[in-house]
Every structure is written in structure tokens, then in C-alpha cells.
Amino acid sequence: MIQRIQSLFLFFAAVTGIFAFFVPYWTYAGIDFTYTFTTLGVKLTDGSLQSVSISTIPVMVLLALHVALDFTSIFYFKNRTIQLKINSFNMFLTLMIIGTVFLWVPYMIKESVVAEENWGFGLLFPVISFVFLLLANKFIRKDEKLVKAADRLR
Question: In what order do the strands lie in the sheet with 33-38?
Fold first, then answer.
């Protein structure tokens, strides 16, 4: 199951999803404060305390569902059509994560804090995960064609 190349790509997509929980997406630096946005929350890393009420629950739920679907898809190696459907939905979910992180989060923070924003390394993880899902789908389709060709020869 894990020795198939698409299973490895799905595993790597899940690992990048897990890394995305802990790596900061954005850093907002003001005059006397610095906020760091991760999936687990918005943290005040240094400076005076300002009240910021930004919920990261939508990003957290989407990312947790993404990782769960990655691991679920690995174990559907015997049924490639279901595996393709799960991966297609997971790719849509990953696009929702990317859209949420790129569009919704900066908008929410800019409304509550006047600060300079800096991109973090965590923005790459959903994109890398999406690429791994694309590669997994490519190899699942390749296996499906191979099996159908072998069935025709019988």
C-alpha cells in the first residue's frame, strides 16, 4: 500500500498538512508589537498587549479535514476510483485553504490591527500539498489505465 508512488505522494501531502499547523503564515509588525498568525491561533510574540479577536477555527477545521482525507485516501489503494474522488475533493479543499489563508486572514487582521505584514514560510505548505495531490492523481490514473489494459488482454 505505501510502496506505491501515489501513496507516497499522499503521505507527503499529509505531512505537509501537518507541518502547516505549526509554521507561521503571516507576521504583523506594528510600532510596539508583533503578531504571528499560525493555524493554531494568532500569537503576540513581543510588545505591548493589544486585543485581537481573530478566530482561526475555519483554517484549522479545513486543514484537519485535509490531513484526515489524505490518510483516508492512502488506505483506499484497492479502489482507485474512490481514491480519485477523495483526492479530487481534497484538492478542492486545499484550494479553499489557500483562498482562506491568502484572502480572508489578511483582511481580518488588517481590520483589527494597523501593522506591516510579512509573509511566512507556512504559506508554501498548502501549495506544496496541492502539488503532491496532483501528482498522486496522475499516478492513480496511470494505474487505472494499466489495469484496464490488462483486463482487455484477458
Answer: 41-47, 33-38, 26-29, 116-119
Please state the pTM of the whole predicted model.
Answer: 0.84
Residue 87 and residue 144 in contact, taking contact as beta carbons nearer than 8 Å: no
CB-CB contact of 12 with 132 (8 Å): yes
State the Cα–Cα distance between residues 43 and 37, nearest whole angstrom: 6
* Residue range 137-154: mean pLDDT, rounded: 82
3-class state of residue 24 by DSSP: coil
* Grid cell of 22 as nine digits: 505549526
- β 33-38/41-47 pair status: antiparallel
At 1, is the pLDDT very low, low, confident or very high (cuts 50, 70, 90)? Answer: low
Closest-CA residue to 14 (of 56, 86, 73): 73
